[in-house]
Design brief:
Shape: globular
Number of helices: 8
Helix content: 40-55%
Strand content: 5-15%
Radius of gyration: 16 Å
Strand order of the largest sheet: 3-4-5
Length: about 210
């Protein structure tokens, strides 16, 4: 399945206009009639939609609410546990990508778009479509968090549980990977997960 980025951007913008929370009722499934719940999925890299019990209950670790039109990160702990990634790293990625705004849509200079809490790039749309996830589903904070955790785990599986493996979420090109490492490190300092001082962020080069 190929996605036309311009048409997809227009479609996503329409979703935001007519109903920002339309994706909240969507369930991720491997067949149209059978929802895939987190407790029913066995492969490590399956993308799962949490059951209603999971999505409405408080996580074991509470992430502080962020003021304004922001996500409270209610699915971070559950998604991190399901995919076997560090919850603090996952939250740092979400903060870096969107500032915890679940409705962010950014258009890149290369013609691709980044959607939702985890800034999922449209280059991955065909892959996540295999799991029943459409781009507009990424506007739901829980779907986006689970997909972000899945993508993070993929990089760690490929490159190891290292800074490079974590930053592979963004890019495997050394310069951009290193720059993303710095961004994540600084966010973890801001979150009081790591001691400072913050590092100087390399200039963004194209």
């Amino acid at each position: 399945m190929k996605f036309k980025h311009g048409a997809m951007l227009c479609s996503l913008q329409c979703v935001l206009i007519v109903g920002p929370w339309i994706a909240a009722t969507a369930q991720v499934s491997d067949s149209p009639s059978q929802p895939l719940h987190s407790d029913a999925a066995t492969p490590v890299l399956s993308i799962a939609w949490p059951s209603s019990r999971t999505s409405t209950s408080s996580p074991t670790k509470t992430h502080p609410p962020i003021q304004g039109f922001k996500s409270e990160g209610r699915c971070i702990e559950a998604a991190a546990n399901f995919h076997g990634v560090n919850a603090s790293i996952l939250q740092a990625i979400l903060m870096t990508e969107s500032g915890m705004n679940p409705l962010v849509i950014n258009q890149n200079k290369n013609g691709t778009i980044d959607v939702g809490l985890g800034g999922m790039n449209s280059s991955h749309f065909s892959e996540i479509a295999k799991f029943g996830i459409a781009p507009e589903h990424l506007l739901d904070e829980c779907v986006a968090t689970y997909v972000t955790a899945w993508q993070l785990k993929k990089g760690i599986n490929q490159f190891g549980n290292t800074w490079f493996g974590v930053a592979a979420y963004h890019s495997t090109t050394p310069y951009f990977n290193n720059r993303y490492q710095v961004l994540l490190f600084n966010q973890l300092v801001s979150d009081h997960v790591l001691p400072g001082p913050k590092l100087i962020v390399p200039r963004l080069e194209h």
